[in-house]
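Good morning,

Attaching, inline, the backbone tokens for the sequence recovery test we're adding to the shared suite. The designed sequence is right after.
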């Protein structure tokens, strides 16, 4: 296990869950379900497969202070703030470089900080098996989610034959290609074929192998990793060199070009919790289909989502299908059907509410 490292990606903005989320405290830093913040859950999920001292978190300067407060069980040097937004490929390269500087033979797993996984045991079992496979297979490994509906908002991974390895207890497939977010009709076809998984942004590989693939397909990122491992002043190097990297996703930059990619099918639950609608599924439900984290009184009101950070009682009269979120300094009222547009209101707000 000492050869295993983890990179947790903990950046992002706080727009979809306004007014509870803010720029300095987006979704992953909130306790939306009474189970601890999503970042703390992500750290705990790695227990038993990655030593605590081998967990590295990438965030940004707006969120760095809160990330450090919540991840105080990690060494201070394991929390790194990106000096500029450069998408996932540069972020992954930074993580690879930081880990390679410590252990050039390491196996590493990359996970987002803002996914909800309730069955941590199943996650650990699969992740441990994937890390072991990465040590002996020259491949980049992904963990995909079996689609449950034709979602047009996720990227998809198209798979071919099953990997024949008697040591594996989970299904693992060769990857044909990565598919971008499809239209609804195409997503229906993907679901019907049975050969696709949702791309959950979870990757596993050996550092030596991924550096070889970067050198072949992403020379700018490969040079950045090499120079980082040789740097005597990491903070200064990152501040100067990271902003020079071309913004691009890890899927476009590397995974779609890599010589060989494998895909484990997840045996655990997964939700990317993309809106207040997703949160509502996990809150206590009333007989009228209202979801709430606080005391609620209703008259002829159904299918509403109510969330307060104070525990105050909320009364609803004659309203259906609303999202009501109350914080100390702001109140949101929106139709459920407009949940994806909540982020648009952020551009109209004063700075003190961002």
């Amino acid at each position: 296990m000492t050869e295993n490292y983890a990179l947790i990606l903990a950046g992002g903005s706080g727009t979809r869950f306004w007014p509870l989320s803010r720029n300095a405290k987006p979704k992953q830093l909130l306790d939306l379900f009474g189970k601890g913040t999503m970042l703390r859950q992500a750290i705990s999920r790695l227990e038993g497969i990655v030593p605590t001292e081998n967990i590295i978190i990438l965030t940004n300067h707006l969120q760095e202070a809160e990330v450090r407060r919540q991840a105080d069980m990690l060494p201070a040097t394991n929390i790194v703030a990106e000096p500029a937004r450069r998408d996932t490929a540069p972020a992954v390269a930074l993580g690879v470089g930081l880990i390679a500087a410590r252990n050039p033979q390491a196996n590493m797993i990359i996970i987002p900080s803002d996914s909800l996984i309730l069955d941590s045991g199943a996650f650990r079992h699969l992740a441990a098996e994937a890390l072991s496979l990465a040590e002996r297979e020259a491949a980049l490994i992904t963990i995909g989610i079996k689609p449950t509906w034709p979602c047009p908002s996720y990227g998809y991974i198209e798979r071919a034959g099953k990997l024949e390895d008697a040591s594996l207890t989970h299904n693992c497939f060769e990857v044909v290609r990565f598919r971008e977010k499809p239209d609804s009709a195409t997503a229906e076809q993907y679901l019907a074929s049975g050969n696709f998984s949702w791309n959950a942004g979870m990757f596993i590989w050996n550092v030596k192998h991924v550096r070889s693939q970067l050198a072949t397909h992403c020379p700018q990122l490969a040079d950045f990793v090499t120079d980082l491992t040789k740097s005597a002043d990491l903070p200064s190097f990152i501040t100067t060199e990271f902003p020079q990297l071309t913004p691009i996703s890890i899927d476009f930059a590397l995974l779609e070009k890599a010589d060989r990619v494998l895909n484990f099918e997840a045996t655990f639950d997964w939700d990317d919790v993309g809106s207040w609608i997703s949160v509502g599924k996990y809150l206590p439900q009333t007989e009228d289909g209202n979801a709430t984290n606080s005391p609620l009184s209703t008259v002829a009101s159904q299918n509403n989502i109510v969330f307060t950070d104070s525990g105050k009682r909320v009364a609803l009269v004659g309203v259906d299908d609303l999202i009501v979120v109350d914080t100390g300094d702001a109140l949101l009222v929106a139709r459920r059907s407009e949940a994806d547009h909540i982020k648009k209101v952020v551009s109209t707000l004063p700075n003190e509410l961002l």
